[in-house]
Fold this protein.
Amino acid sequence: MTAARRGGQQDRVPPHPDVRTISLQQVLEAVVDPVRRRIVGELYAAGEDLACGTIELPVSKSTATHHFHVLREAGLIRQYYVGTSRMNALRREEFDEAFPGLLRALMVERERG
Amino acid sequence: MTAARRGGQQDRVPPHPDVRTISLQQVLEAVVDPVRRRIVGELYAAGEDLACGTIELPVSKSTATHHFHVLREAGLIRQYYVGTSRMNALRREEFDEAFPGLLRALMVERERG
């Protein structure tokens, strides 16, 4: 693999903020959207990383991409590539440390069914 | 006290929803506003009911009234009158039962100081 190619791969990995630098305001603005809560809920329930395409959402692909972006910026998910698939990981431990109990409390919709 | 006067007093007590009928969506739309979180935080920290006028807010009186209204509709506070003072009570037990852990999680800003 050439340096240029490695560079290209790195460019595809988007930047991720340190969760400790994120405000509750930014987190709430992220999770107030029901589609974004659904993404978080799917990852929470799956207990494993999921490709964007495997999470069924009632929005267009470009809108979904925007929602994943907002969640990434709010420190809730980490994104990385496996081949051409963009994978999503819930940053559960880091998030729980910065915002104790919040993620679990937001899962009340899933628990109610 | 006449019947008319009693009726008048009752009219001044605004309606309060059953917290169990409120959606997480409505709650999040209420607490995503920092002024409303501040009101909830003041009541949480005070541990007692507070008159509207005793909670210092960086908004006009009519805007503050709107914020209290949104919190009441979202099941977070109960309002009642003592003389001419509109008092606010955090509906902590009922809310905790409907949304376990959420109120506490939202207090992270106060805990960080």
Observations:
- The radius of gyration of chain B is 15 Å.
- The longest helix of chain B spans residues 34-46.
- Strands of chain B lie at 50-51, 77-82, 85-90.
- The longest strand of chain B covers residues 77-82.
